[in-house]
Fold each of these.
Amino acid sequence: MKMLELKDKSRSQLEADLIDLLKTQFSLRMQHATGQLNKNSELKRIRRDIARIKTKLAEKGSSES
């Protein structure tokens, strides 16, 4: 997910995406803990996507005030 993709999304869409990514991250962490995760890079990608969305939410929050 790129920042350009997030630029046109509304705050509610970003929050929904964030919740989905957090659920995915939890699932991947459980797979990693049980040794079932094949692609460790997925954890890193999801973590960075979460950070991107949180950054965009912070930007939108500060611009609305």
Note: Residues 39-64 form one domain.
Amino acid sequence: MDVKLLEKVREITKGIVIYDIVITVLSVVVSLFSKQLFLGLIFGSLIAILSFRLSAIKIDRTFGGGSSKKPQLLILSGFGTRMAIYAIVLVASARAPHLNVFGTALGLTSTQFVILTKNLFIDKIKERRSKA
């Protein structure tokens, strides 16, 4: 995998860990913490990290010259696969008594939340500091 892409994947993975810590602390503060919520959050986050890493590998292969297929087809098939995995994970979480489906959903959305937070706030703060 490309070094720059690998660094971005590691950065997002660290952000997901921080996200999990923040959600756990917030759930304790508002008295919503439960073992099932925590396990669901961890389960969803692990699946989100795995899915993000697989997406990065697919992007690297698609645009790095490792594939002769149309890039649009590969990206679309990857998206469909991820959505199917997310559906299976949510159904499994809903059926498992030791997992909270809401916690799992929070974990599954962690990647999007971390990327949005990074792009909207953290990069803007770094940009302002570098100009000052």
Note: The chain has a mean pLDDT of 89.
Amino acid sequence: MADLSSEFVGIKSPNPFWLASAPPTDKEYNVRRAFEAGWGGVVWKTLGEEGPPVVNVNGPRYGAIWGADRRLLGLNNIELITDRPLEVNLREIKQVKRDYPDRAVVVSIMVPCEEQAWKSILPLVEETGADGIELNFGCPHGMSERGMGSAVGQVPEYIEMVTRWCKQYSRMPVIVKLTPNITDIRKPARAAKAGGADAVSLINTINSITGVDLDSFAPEPTIDGKGSHGGYCGPAVKPIALSMVSEIARDPETHGLPISGIGGVTTWRDAAEFMALGAGNVQVCTAAMTYGFKVVQEMISGLSQWMDEKGHASVADFVGRAVPNVTDWQYLNLNYITKARIDQDACIKCGRCYAACEDTSHQAISMSADRVFEVKDDECVACNLCVNVCPVEGCITMEELAPGAMDERTGRKVAKEYANWTTHPNNPAARPAAE
């Protein structure tokens, strides 16, 4: 059996599945239920400083994007950090960690960008026995208007400064949570590393409005006729998160910096993809809010079975395995040629591949009078659009051809051949060693 135990910046947990800082981790009751369901760790919902209480709206806090089958694809939220008293949260964190010593308990923190504010709250959190802290530099709504959250995460100098304070005034591992609402994710990651961060976590939610009520003309969710931008999460953000994780993992300036992957993790496969791109573990929110805490059991069993099938003894065996295969476009092999192939036995003759290709692509699919669809190799550029629009999984596939291959029907060359590929500037092997 594969060993799913995880050690992330010295924090041990029985598996790499943590709950992200969010509504599911706002109180002791929730966290205990999560641990009983099998979660390896939690990041407690963001704590703020002592003082005026945080007040959330008493109306809809979530907006949603659904697929055709009403499956939740994206969730927008306008909820703020915890609105429960600091002392209550601290007491509950201490009790939970006492009762679940084998689970990871990390505490998310957000206070004003002032040294004294951080210096004051860090000892209080450390006294709970928590395993580490996560600096919330990512929240894009509500708190950012007050100079916190993504307002800090968008300024690398602030990230480095606050991270240094936390390393100075605390012995706990420091994880810096990054905002995706920035042009180049590498810059805040570099700043976190420069400040001494033990790790980064990403992505936090994406600034968004999910829809507009066309009767009231107010953004959704609507509070008394008004709406606001919020944070977008869920399966729809996974591609953005994967890309940003990979950028940090392959950046020479942040090489080796541990990463906690966040963003649309719904299945074991999602988690494995994040880890293959360099994440040491993953954090989950929307999937738990959609399906309940027991969804982690499917993640655990699925990842364990896949690891057994592939011969991975531990999660460390495949963390970062995909990073060397992420490259810039200019280094892609121009001599790699594929063509679409349609399985006539599986085809349901819907014609979606033909319509998509004929109207919007390369007119590379023919349709006979009795609706038989075939690929014209000499026109097919292997764009893969037909594969993606076909409603029958596996009906259309891409077949690799040798450079210079000929179409047997027309006798025309259908696979371009770059004879000088060995010296082509797109080929990394052809570049001088100094580069």
Note: The chain has twelve helices and 20 strands.
Amino acid sequence: MKLFVYHTPELTPTDRMPDCAIAVDVLRATTTMATVLAAGGEAVQIFSDLDQLMQVSEKWSAEKRLRAGERGGAKVAGFDLGNSPLDCTPEQVQGRRLFISTTNGTRALQRVQAAPTVLAAAFVNRAAVVQYVLKKQPESVWIVGSGWEGSFSLEDTACAGAIAHSLLQQTNLPLEDLASNDEVIGAIALYSQWQDKLLELFYQASHGKRLLRLDGHADLKYCAQTDILDVIPIQREPGVLVKF
């Protein structure tokens, strides 16, 4: 297995795709997606464009859809939800499809949607994602952080490091055999330093501070939990993720 970490979608190679791509947007898109599917959502459909989201979701009955829109960390006016996993209760999402567009996470998923296998990962479902990779043994794996509007984000790279760290422990492979770019080693080092104080890391992260200004402390606390959901959002068709 050859593991690569990319801090943002823009840093991924443009001339090839991996056997398995893992998109990460800890704060908050991929955390929200895993939470929706764990709570009984039918599927999550992603969009970069809000108008296209509205157009496609119009074809679904109001009882079977939820529209989630987030820009700059805040809910988009006129949408049912923003991007808070805490709003995704079973009462709200059961049997419904979430049509979602966010500032960063949906871009990461769209960048890798041509890969044969596409997963969405966060701290909340890290163990489930690791177990899937260990079972399927893809030859090449990309972990793609969403970043923030094209720039590095601490929390996504720390989560990439959490996945890589667990794979390293469970495969017993030498680091030089698993890590195929320097970013893997850097991500593991970042996670190793902060693994017992992830919430504190989120307070230091620029997007964590942004969410705190929007009264998002409860979201940060939820997103900092590790391995609480045994659910993997997996792409069934381009742009549509379902529960695995």
Note: Strands lie at 2-6, 20-24, 43-46, 65-71, 74-75, 97-101, 117-121, 140-145, 233-237, 240-243.
